[in-house]
Design brief:
Two copies of one chain form a homodimer. Chain A is α+β, with helices and mostly antiparallel strands and 226 residues long. Chain A has helices at 13-29, 35-41, 47-59; strands at 63-65, 73-75, 84-93, 115-119, 133-137, 152-157, 165-171, 176-185, 188-192, 201-204, 210-221. Chain A binds a DNA duplex (30 and 30 nucleotides) through residues 1, 3-8, 34-36, 44-53, 67-72.
Chain lengths: 226, 226
DNA sequence: ATAATACTCGAACGTCTGTTCTGTGTCAAG
DNA sequence: CTTGACACAGAACAGACGTTCGAGTATTAT
């Protein structure tokens, strides 16, 4: 009755309701709903009416249907959302403490509380399949890296770096942890701050320098500051 | 014959093959395979044998099955990943230019190239359902906000702010865009840099101040720096 | 007003799908 | 050798599922 919408009006209320249901059902169950399930949830008593609407949604490109199999339907969306993965948060990184580094077991199971979800599309292609770990910055002393207290940094474990890569290093002689761009030079190493107004750390080859990881991403949740 | 593997060997080759097939089929089709499809692809000629293996995989926790519906099966994985959403990237934010602000249509359809995917779990609860937009930072002049050239900032559109919130403002008298913490004071406004070593901007009430949005997140892809 | 079009309904039907059952083959232990 | 456990096969079946059809209702255009 009141649910009848003319085709000339474009995507109607019932179309949208069906799409919403398909989307939320798919998210929850990882498979599409059946026609009868769509009917039950959208107050449509006949499978042929659901079919009628699905045909229209297929015609407008919102869904794709495979008529040869059960539950053969999926949302196209304008763009499907991509993949996501979890990165374990191993602890904090702060100036005067060694850097927590993952053991092999740290890449296995982890819970929402000690991991962070990252959309795959945010990661450069070469880091996607890699085992990454996250650390939360504690303190104000990574300012020279333009990184704030509370920021989450995501690292690829490595003990080597190429020139120009931002690394997390532990300088045991100085009892210092720092994040800087790494450059190997003739007779030592240069650790260059991301903040261009600040001076680099110059290290001789004899000085201890432990690269613990390469920084690939920084995430900052900006909160109200009091 | 040669495919028969004793249970005492743990998760067998055929178990793994079935799991791999389920995973790749699910990724491609967005729904699980049927038992006959699993059989065809894993060289199992009888649906009862597929059922036999699925029962075992269910028992070991690798899959969940819903026996009341067709294709009622899904991989468990360690932890279900949550939701994700897209935020439109409207353009760049740079020092001497007005800030791109969303029109209503900007929250509708968008493509991967002009949007960024964000895991819902990264967003504070109160921003989750909101219409957000993203801007890419261009230039070095947001340094006082500890924000780099190339960073992506995510904003909630607003023309008001509360004390302590980081806002994107356009100061038309100065022809300047800036990101700072906002404080309303007795006879004007104070825009405080995130970098504690830098000075605030003090504005009189008569000076033009256009708040365009509140910053809720900063994402930095750390690349090699040459 | 009528005619055309779009939407809605329910029954019936064919196909997909998973389960159950029975039987066979292999292996290890007694 | 027998027995029991496990792996495998195929047939049969019940139920889930989507499609088709005819009829009726609502809306729009003329």
């Amino acid at each position: 009755m009141m649910m009848m919408v003319r085709k000339s009006k474009g995507l109607g209320e019932r179309h949208q309701r069906i799409l919403d249901f398909i989307a939320s059902y798919q998210r929850e169950h990882k498979h599409p709903p059946s026609i009868r399930e769509i009917g039950e949830h959208c107050n449509i008593s006949s499978t042929s009416v659901v079919n009628y609407y699905l045909d229209q949604l297929e015609k407008t490109g919102h869904i794709e249907r495979d008529r040869k199999i059960s539950r053969g339907m999926r949302l196209t969306g304008n763009t499907p959302l991509g993949d996501m993965f979890r990165v374990p948060i191993l602890g904090v990184i702060q100036a005067g403490e060694p850097i927590p580094v993952p053991a092999n077991a740290d890449f296995g199971s982890f819970t929402p509380e000690d991991s962070v979800e990252i959309a795959s599309s945010l990661m450069p292609g070469k880091e996607k399949g890699k085992e990454l770990f996250a650390l939360q910055v504690q303190g104000d002393s990574m300012i020279d890296a333009m990184i704030n207290d509370g920021d989450i940094i995501i690292l690829k474990p490595t003990e080597d770096a190429r020139n120009g890569e931002m690394v997390a290093v532990w300088l045991s002689d100085r009892n210092e942890t720092t994040l800087k761009y790494y450059y190997k030079e003739k007779d030592g190493y240069r650790l260059q701050p991301a903040n261009p107004t600040m001076k680099p750390i110059m290290l001789k080859k004899t000085e201890a320098l432990e690269i613990k990881g390469k920084v690939v991403m920084v995430i900052r949740k900006v909160e109200r500051y009091n």
